[in-house]
Amino acid sequence: MLGVTGLTAGYGRIEVLHNVDLAVDAGEIVAIVGANGAGKTTLMNVLAGIHPPFAGSITYEGNDITAMPAHVRVASGIVLVPQGRRIFGPLTVEDNLRLGAYRSAADRSDLTAMEEMFPILAERRGQGAGGLSGGQQQMLAIARALMARPRLLLLDEPSMGLAPLIVEQIFDALRTRHKREGTTIVVVEQNVSAALAFADRGIVMETGRIVAAGPSADLLNDTAVQDAFLGAEN
Ligand code: ATP
């Protein structure tokens, strides 16, 4: 579904991603994990079309989309839940959801599905989104993205700043959605154990390079991955 070849990207003259290759099959859940500064957000922004790469190519469902603008990618099913949620604080919860459907054919039934997925969004439907807690805002950001009816959902650190119980609730809801709709999901995370527990497969990034990849269970049992990322959590 998604193919990345020789991707190099950065800011100004500074290269942050170095020759990244990766492939994601339709229906997979893939976690890209790595420490702060590994280049995960840069990669997600390049995949979403928000940040142009220096070199390399991206294919999606067989087409080269390297030069495709972000809004066209959304219309073709690639939707990003950005780091830090980026909800529209002054707007109501419902209006945030409706804005997610701007490029899609989503209707009332999509809205209902989102409110069933995260019931708090129904309770807060008419309230300003800026008044929601961090976890509720993350739920809203995910639901807003799903209103665009993605075929490839990109999630940038959905667990950031949230309590473990909320993180679990969010990943559970996403797993249920994935089972029902088969949406392909790529999630980048610093929370390695939560991300690998959620994903089928993991890719480990270090300073802009992929240094390990494999089934999540193998990575969780890999001593190098444990030493690098899971020490403090075990
Ligand atoms: P985090 O978990 O902190 O978001 P990350 O793995 O997502 O980390 P990036 O945010 O992609 O990593 O950052 C990778 C590198 O690029 C870092 O060294 C960062 O300082 C640098 N960087 C990110 N955004 C910019 C920018 N707008 N201008 C210059 N350098 C940037």
Strand content: 25-35%
How do the strands line up in the largest sheet? Answer: 6-7-8-3-9-10
Give a count of the beta strands, DSSP E runs of length 2 or more.
10
Shape: globular
Largest sheet: 6 strands, mixed
Radius of gyration over C-alpha positions, nearest whole angstrom: 17 Å
Give the bound compounds: adenosine-5'-triphosphate
Mean pLDDT: 92
Element pattern in H and E: EEEHEEHEHHHHEHEHEEHH
* Number of alpha- plus pi-helical segments: 10
Structural notes for this entry:
The protein is an alpha/beta fold. The protein is built from 10 helices and 10 strands. The chain has helices at 40-48, 70-75, 93-100, 108-117, 119-123, 134-146, 164-181, 192-198, 216-221, 223-230, and strands spanning 2-11, 14-24, 29-33, 55-60, 63-64, 78-81, 152-156, 184-189, 201-206, 209-215. The strands form 2 sheets. The protein has a 6-stranded mixed sheet, sandwiched between helices. The protein has a 4-stranded antiparallel sheet with strand order 2-1-4-5, with helices on one face. Helix 7 (164-181) links the parallel strand 7 and strand 8. Helix 3 (93-100) packs parallel to helix 6. It is globular and about 45 Å long. The protein binds adenosine-5'-triphosphate. Residues 11, 16, 34, 36-42, 83, 190 line the site of adenosine-5'-triphosphate.
